[in-house]
Specification:
257 residues; alpha+beta; 8-stranded mixed sheet; 8 helices; 27% strand; elongated
């Protein structure tokens, strides 16, 4: 049985993107964190401190949104609470004021919204092939891609159509993540069209005027690629990852709450 598990882990590693595999390895390599009850409220602790591991949680308690974030879990695999930003940094007194130093514990979250037909019709939002949208992302520097990967895998399972960038605006850091998905062979891409109002506003042409289902706001794509090249940008696509290899590789380090 042990040999089978080891072979399965190696199989998973062969398919996982090397950059994401490095982040998984770094997550598992983080030392246990001793949490003091004096600094954590509403926690059922029996001793003065207890060790926890850093993990990733998917919060699905909302009808039209999920949050993927770094968290702590106890020895029984029980989710404890979200890591706060101050838990990933410490302040050092020095000349000229306090300096911030990383503790090595990642902090951050990604919020993904699923399509809400009622809200979409109310505001006149185009269908975008019913894709799920990253609407907010803030993580410790260097730890964002793992959360994006989990969000992409979750958005691609159980009949979900996949994940796309925020239609309102995308930071340079986020664009770098989508640029990687654009060239990865293990991620499927679908081109989203520009909606009629956007085509008129930005003086461009629709790609598939007879198919309204792929119409989408391409404001971010036009900002990146212009009226002539918006369709070539990574943020103009819908991405789908058929397998959930990273979620599987995390094992007990991934909790759904």
């Amino acid at each position: 049985m042990k040999l089978l598990l080891e072979n399965w882990r190696e199989f998973l590693k062969e398919g996982i993107d090397p950059r994401i595999q490095t982040q998984i390895d770094n997550l598992f390599a983080l030392p246990e964190v001793n949490i003091s009850p004096e600094t954590w409220d509403s926690m059922p602790l029996k001793g003065p401190q207890f060790p926890t591991n850093v993990a990733v949680a998917i919060e699905t308690g909302y009808d039209y949104a999920i949050t993927v974030f770094y968290c702590f879990i106890d020895k029984d695999g029980k989710f404890i609470r979200r890591i706060r930003e101050k838990d990933s940094t410490k302040y050092i007194s020095g000349e000229g004021g306090r300096k911030v130093e990383s503790t090595g514990i990642p902090h951050g979250q990604i919020i993904v919204e699923s399509p809400d037909e009622e809200t979409r019709q109310r505001w006149g939002d185009p269908p975008c092939l019913n894709g799920l949208t990253v609407t907010s992302a803030k993580t410790t520097r260097g730890w964002g891609p793992l959360l994006y990967e989990i969000a992409l895998e979750w958005a691609s399972q159980d009949g979900r159509p996949g994940l796309m960038a925020d239609r309102r605006g995308v930071s340079d850091y986020a664009v770098a993540v989508w640029d990687k998905y654009l060239v990865r062979g293990d991620v499927d891409k679908k081109q989203l069209d520009i909606d009629p109002a956007g085509a008129k506003q930005f003086h461009t042409q629709q790609l598939t005027p007879d198919d309204p289902e792929d119409d989408c706001s391409q404001r971010s794509a036009v900002r990146r690629g212009g009226s002539d090249g918006w369709q070539d940008t990574s943020v103009s696509k819908l991405y789908n990852k058929p397998n959930a290899e990273v979620m599987s590789a995390l094992g007990a380090r991934l909790v759904i709450v």
